[in-house]
Hints:
Elements: H1 2-21, H2 26-45, H3 50-80, E1 94-101, E2 104-109, E3 112-118, E4 132-139, E5 142-147
Parallel strand pairs: 3-5
Antiparallel strand pairs: 1-2, 1-4, 2-3, 4-5
Helix pairs in contact: 1-2, 2-3
Amino acid sequence: xxxxxxxxxxxxxxxxxxxxxxxxxVLGVGGGLSLAxxxxxxxxxxxxxxxxxxxxxxxxxxxxGLWLAVGTRKALATRALRSSAGREALSGRLGVVRNxxxxxxxxxxEGALWRARQSWMDEDAVLAEGDPVVVERVSGxxxxxxxxxxxxxxx
Length: 155
């Protein structure tokens, strides 16, 4: 009985570590239950009274549940963050026109030179070299840009 309790505690700890690396919730719940049950079995087999067994089981379960709740909250918070790398991060960024003619050209955004075309919402605006632009969206390797408003350009 003592050996089974120790094995359950070790399995529970391993499941909680696995949950930290692959958050899904199932591993964390299973790990918490295994940890609490294993602790209860180990203490009961060692001759501990019912009050001690219940206290340890509830304490271990509470710690595992708290750890799972904090981890889940952090995982959900990171999902809500805006991407800071790749094409998705370019939308809304400021750039500068390097050369432009016939509704298309090249713009410098975040230190890289991109092929660009004028956004359909801003087709009437005339762009020239040196004009500030805002990236509206990314299509493949081409940016759709519009002329930046005065309030969007830093001083």
